[in-house]
Amino acid sequence: MRGGTVWDREGGRMLRGVNLNLLPILRELLRERNVTAAAKRLNLTQSGVSEALGRLRVQFGDELLVKTGRRMVPTALALEIAPRLEDLLATTEDLLRPVRFNPAYSDREIRIATGDTVALALGKGLLQRLAAQAPRTTIQFVSTEAPMRANLEEGKIDFLIIPRGVIPSTILSEEGLERLPLYREDWVIIARRDHPKLTGPLTLDLLDELPSIACRLDDLSYLHGAIPGRRRVDQIQVSQFTLLPILVAESDAVAMVGSVAKIVKLEHAWRRLDGRNDDGFQVAPFPG
Which CATH superfamily is domain 188-285 in? Predict the structure, then answer.
């Protein structure tokens, strides 16, 4: 130790022996070259700044500032370290400044585990907002097959968007997870427009007589979109909701779906690509 400073074996000052809180004071002293002016800028007392200068002199082993008349003249060492000190403190202050997220410069990939109808419902709005606000960001919709809580906790997926009740709580516990409602959808029954048996009001008994198609995302999920109260089994089970209207429009089967407006648009677009001009299928509220 020399003059109260801790040195390493090569004679350099060790960081743990340096009071870094004195460096902003030294910066102001080198800028103002006047103890009173520096104290005012730092909102400190003149005696406090004078004491800090004394400790800095010991720390650097140099006078740093020599009083000449009413002003103080920096030594050769002070002039040498001044620009480096400015850069160091500017970098440190920038490091400690809270980072504000700016989507315009974000190039991250966001992975959202969800079903195909959610991607269909959100896709158009996301494309518009990404183009306008986050042109370098990528959103990847991935399958919800066997979504485990660890996938969220380990960062394998960023968000999980599913209807409540689709995945048993024994598979995916919501405890401790941040969650919020995204949108609400009503369940309705769809059937092809010219269905021979749907000429009057839709009843539960009539639904029980008709073949049906349901969606099951994977083996761990509840049968989602299955018509409640039916005694018959669903003849066809698919893993994609967007297949339901296409299959219904080509058969006598019925199905229960949500996000009706989006699914209707999809089915109409499919029929136009297929060269058809009819209205596709009919939509009816679930009979209660």
Answer: Periplasmic binding protein-like II (3.40.190.10)
When the candidates are 1.10.8.60, 1.20.1330.10, 2.40.280.10, 1.10.10.10, the CATH number that belongs to 15-96 is 1.10.10.10
Answer yes or no: pTM beyond 0.85.
Answer: no
Q: How many residues does the chain have?
A: 288
d(CA 125, CA 148): 27
Confidence of residue 83 (pLDDT cuts 50, 70, 90): very high
- pLDDT category at 175 given cuts 50, 70, 90 is confident
C-beta of residue 214 within 8 angstroms of C-beta of residue 234 = yes
Query: What is the DSSP-derived secondary structure letter of residue 210?
Result: S
CA 185 – CA 204 distance, rounded (Å): 21
